[in-house]
TrEMBL record:
Gene Ontology cellular component annotations, sorted alphabetically: cytoplasm
Pathway(s) served: Amino-acid biosynthesis; L-arginine biosynthesis; N(2)-acetyl-L-ornithine from L-glutamate: step 4/4
GO molecular function terms listed in the Swiss-Prot or TrEMBL record: identical protein binding; N2-acetyl-L-ornithine:2-oxoglutarate 5-aminotransferase activity; pyridoxal phosphate binding
Note, other: May also have succinyldiaminopimelate aminotransferase activity, thus carrying out the corresponding step in lysine biosynthesis.
Protein name per the record: Acetylornithine aminotransferase
Keywords: Amino-acid biosynthesis, Aminotransferase, Arginine biosynthesis, Cytoplasm, Pyridoxal phosphate, Transferase
HAMAP family per record: ArgD_aminotrans_3 (MF_01107)
EC number(s) recorded for this UniProt protein: 2.6.1.11
GO BP annotations, alphabetical order: L-arginine biosynthetic process
Length: 406
């Protein structure tokens, strides 16, 4: 028998953790489906989904089964050897997308790091060192490593860490003319989130993505889609590029791919992949059997007509009720997003107060997210039950009522 564990509480965070987070006052300890329980046994409905990660909710039997089975077989062998779950997962991703090749890592930042390094290596090999410039968008988010935070278009995350990686510029999102003015034959890649997640759940216009594709082709630049938040069913298509009908050269995925177990993937074509020859890039844990076994199970459930169609139906259910709540209480002016990545844009009176809405929802037993200070974000499980949607939105309405009456 294992020794009894020492009790811990929220106050311990302030004693032993680096203070770069400000977690909520309660500690979740158990989850089932779209419900979570805290240390005191209080039940909450989860519309946060671990920031668009828990694609099948909590403790989904298919994922628990896959993890348990693999845990009893093989955890880690490194990339000195390959493993069966990684090869099965690569086959599934290649069969379901434009890609011919997959690279596995542990997070979205690492998937983007690999994507940006590949783009620069391709340009270096084919055109020489001058062609290394990367164009990203204002308010984009691509991860927290020095390279990815430099590519991300939010100075609050990249300032104060010494010299930034050079050769990176930022243009306004959804502005094709600005991209046209910035792109040149020195550009090696254009990086776009099909829906900007962290900065407010802002979907791209189809014409914008089509225009970006054409500009990249004209200037021999690669089009990279950061699908860390939009991938693996979130939009009602397996990947958002399929929803838009615009195909990138490189795609990054993470978050939902593991359903809660850390894994990231970079997908690309055979022609580009060959530029990452043996020794050019690597990761110790990337593609480990545990993560890949879980991700295989995630894809088996998510990449089905029933689940993907369900995402679109649930979107309508959320949107209709949220618009009603927004109007009734004057809390927000717009409900935007695709599939089960939804942003409620706060009204003028509530600008900058997304944290207050988050807190009010938590008091009513509901977990939601912010996307910047002006947007309340919902990223629930893709298989959230209709009864949980109704109950969760009832709780959200109670929170809205209390907030606006105060």
């Amino acid at each position: 028998m294992s020794a009894p564990q020492a009790p811990v509480q929220r106050a311990d965070f302030d004693q032993v953790m680096v203070p770069n987070y400000a977690p909520a006052a309660f500690i979740p300890v158990r989850g089932a489906g779209s419900r979570v329980w805290d240390q005191a046994g209080r039940e909450l409905i989860d519309f946060a989904g671990g920031i668009a990660v828990n694609v099948l909710g909590h403790a989904h039997p298919a994922l628990v089964g896959a993890l348990t089975e693999q845990a009893n077989k093989l955890w880690h062998v490194s990339n000195v050897f390959t493993n069966e779950p990684a090869l099965r997962l690569a086959h599934k991703l290649v069969d379901a997308t434009f890609a011919d090749r997959a690279f596995f890592c542990n997070s979205g930042a690492e998937a983007n790091e690999a994507a940006f390094k590949l783009a620069r290596r391709v340009a270096h090999d084919r055109f020489g060192p001058e062609k290394h410039e990367i164009i990203a968008t204002v308010n984009s988010f691509h991860g927290r490593t020095l390279f990815t935070v430099s590519v991300g278009g939010q100075p609050k995350y990249s300032d104060g860490f010494g010299p930034k990686i050079t050769g990176i510029s930022h243009v306004p999102y959804n502005d094709l003319e600005a991209l046209k003015a910035q792109i040149s034959d020195k550009t090696c890649a254009v990086v776009i989130e099909p829906i900007q997640g962290e900065s407010g759940v802002v979907p791209a216009d189809v014409a914008y993505l089509q225009g970006a594709r054409e500009l990249c082709d004209k200037h021999n630049a690669l089009l990279i889609f950061d699908e860390v938040q939009t991938g693996v069913g979130r939009t009602g298509s397996l990947f958002a590029y399929q929803h838009y009908g615009v195909t990138p050269d490189i795609l990054s995925s993470a978050k939902s791919l593991g359903g809660g177990f850390p894994i990231g993937a970079m997908l690309t074509t055979e022609d580009l992949a060959k530029h990452l020859a043996v020794g050019t890039h690597g990761t110790t844990y990337g593609g480990n059997p545990l993560a890949c076994a879980v991700a295989n199970a995630v894809l088996d459930v998510v990449n089905t007509p029933e689940v993907l169609a369900g995402v679109k139906a649930k979107h309508q259910k959320f949107k209709a009720r949220l618009e009603q709540i927004g109007e009734k209480y004057g809390l927000f002016t717009q409900v935007r997003g695709v599939g089960l990545l939804i942003g409620c844009v706060l009204s003028e009176a509530w600008k900058g107060k997304a944290k207050e809405v988050f807190n009010a929802a938590e008091k009513e037993g509901l977990m939601v997210l912010q996307a910047g200070p002006d947007v309340v974000r919902f990223a629930p499980s893709l298989v959230v039950e209709d009864a949980d949607i109704d109950e969760g939105l009832d709780r959200f309405e109670r929170a809205a009522a209390k907030l606006t009456q105060a």
